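ASCH domain-containing protein
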Amino acid sequence: MNYEQVWTPLLKEFTIFSNSPRSEWQFGAAPSQLVDLVITGQKTATSSYFPAYAFDKESVPSVGQLNLILDDKLVPKVLTVNTKVTLQSYDQIGDDIAFLEGEGTRDLIYWRQVHEPFFAEVAKEIGQSFIPQDLIVTEYFKVLKIL
């Protein structure tokens, strides 16, 4: 899909962000289910495995970055803007992030149950072994428009 066709009217509507970095992506696990949590307002943060950015030669998310979040069919469902981005080790993630990620029981126990195997798989894909001291990027965002 050519996402420029989606971006053009959005950038006209949100002119303040016309020079902001932008990206199109889907959540790594259960994309449609997780984007629905964003749409309902339950999910206002997401975390990713920092070493994967260097491996994939991608920029780390930034404050003010616009995101077209896609469903499992790569269809844009919501436009968000990053309001805060943090970098901390996996073992330093707390209940606050688990709650804002909006998944499951919204506590750290659940968050670790689903994220540790996910990050371990990402680490394996890039030829690394996941350890609790690995760095995690957390993006905090707000919804600008449901598409």
